[in-house]
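Hey,
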Amino acid sequence: MYKRVLLKLSGESFADARLGYGIDPATVKRVADEIAEAHALGIEMACVVGGGNIFRGISSAAEGMDRANADYMGMLATIMNGMALRDALENEGVPSRLQTALRIDQVAEPYIRLRAIRHLEKGRVVIFAGGTGNPFFTTDTTAALRAAEIGADVLLKATRVDGVFDADPELFPDASLLVEVTYLELINRDLQVMDATAVTMARDHGLPIVVFNLLEEGNIVRAVKGEQIGTLVSSGAL
């Protein structure tokens, strides 16, 4: 079982499954319940949240919006998701803190690495929002960066599929699940579960990544316990 983990939640983790967008309180509560269960095991939990359920910077930039402006709008969307998750966790009795890379002092703390680590040591769940605070970086890269900064044992990447496949399982039903894959294989085969910058950062810091299906109940707890689940991305030397 890991001691300290960073859980990456996409914006889809907050959306109504039927609609695919917005913030659905029931969906957020289900995720919060699982985080609370993992937290109760004594594991130090940090989360990075995406914002694609509200606004996608890259797709908006592709339609003519200035990329930097679109990315900042996406960062604001992640803060809304972070507030929703913090509220759900507090309702479950789990002490939580929201830290943002963009200053918005009325609703969240600014991101300060040592303060985040102290919160974790005191048994609080720390939610990181606002991306890195810079445009042109994804929340996957934010997750790898924050995981390295806080000294996480593993980066848990929650998705809507069972792990890393040799092809897109939503387009190719006969795609095969890869139980283990190296960082270089992930990049060279363009498997696209995370962007190359995030994978490279994880590799440089020796940070294993576990990609798993968030939609299957209990998977967050299984992942933090170190059970065989989804796909393990590592140097191959573990």
